[in-house]
Inverse folding.
């Protein structure tokens, strides 16, 4: 028995004690977990101005092309919906597309010039309400939108003559308006308009909207009614405007 005990002790396998593994604690989470993953914006020689500051300030070429493209898409999407009651003037003429100094030019029999985005919006609202008063089922159709050839240097505004030709961008839009007169005979009335939009060569925003032609021409009485309506609205709106705000509608025949 003693021999058996010695044999058992000789064959005993000694297993070393398991070593405790030490795992370092995870690093603390940052207070702003996504801050370090935000991409670094590229830098340009002409960075975009802060929001609300100098919207017509110069921008770099890439941003300028983006703004012009955005303006084209906006016109293509909204011009067919000019009489959509769900769209207001702010929706149709947003500040990220139209310059605050945009100028509207109307041909005969409305030979007037309307400067400023606020006046531009209110002139449109006045015209739309007038058409709604005289017609039902008003709608617009976008017939054509094309790039216009660059302007000749002598025809540019004084502040734009030193800009490169690649930034002289204009779009010509053929638009038809149609509706049913409220008074008999209730035959569908239709007008075709040619519109020239000019982009600011510095900011890429729409700086000018010129209605080149209206076919058929409205009667002289209609033209005078619209002009006097706009001029009358101007005289009433100026005293009620905020400090530093003025609306000036010019009769270009004077």
């Amino acid at each position: 028995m003693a021999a058996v005990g010695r044999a058992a002790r000789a064959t005993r396998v000694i297993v070393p004690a398991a070593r405790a593994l030490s795992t370092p604690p995870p690093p603390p989470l940052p207070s702003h977990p996504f801050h370090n993953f935000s991409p670094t914006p590229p830098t340009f020689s002409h960075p975009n101005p802060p929001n609300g500051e100098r919207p017509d300030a110069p921008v770099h070429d890439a941003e300028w092309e983006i703004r012009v493209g955005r303006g084209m898409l906006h016109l293509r999407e909204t011009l067919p919906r000019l009489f959509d009651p769900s769209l207001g003037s702010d929706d149709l003429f947003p500040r990220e597309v139209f310059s605050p100094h945009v100028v509207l030019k109307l041909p005969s029999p409305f030979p007037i010039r309307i400067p400023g985005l606020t006046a531009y919006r209110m002139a449109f609202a006045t015209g739309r309400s007038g058409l709604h008063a005289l017609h039902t089922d008003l709608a617009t159709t976008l017939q054509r939108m094309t790039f216009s050839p660059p302007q000749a240097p002598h025809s540019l505004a004084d502040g734009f003559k030193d800009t490169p030709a690649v930034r002289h961008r204009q779009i010509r839009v053929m638009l038809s308006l149609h509706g049913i007169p409220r008074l008999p005979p209730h035959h569908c009335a239709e007008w075709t308009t040619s519109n020239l939009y000019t982009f600011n060569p510095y900011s890429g925003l729409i700086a000018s909207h010129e209605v080149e032609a209206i076919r058929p021409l409205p009667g002289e009485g209609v033209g005078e009614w619209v002009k006097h309506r706009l001029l009358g609205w101007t005289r009433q709106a100026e005293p009620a405007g905020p400090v530093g705000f003025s609306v000036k509608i010019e009769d270009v025949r004077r």
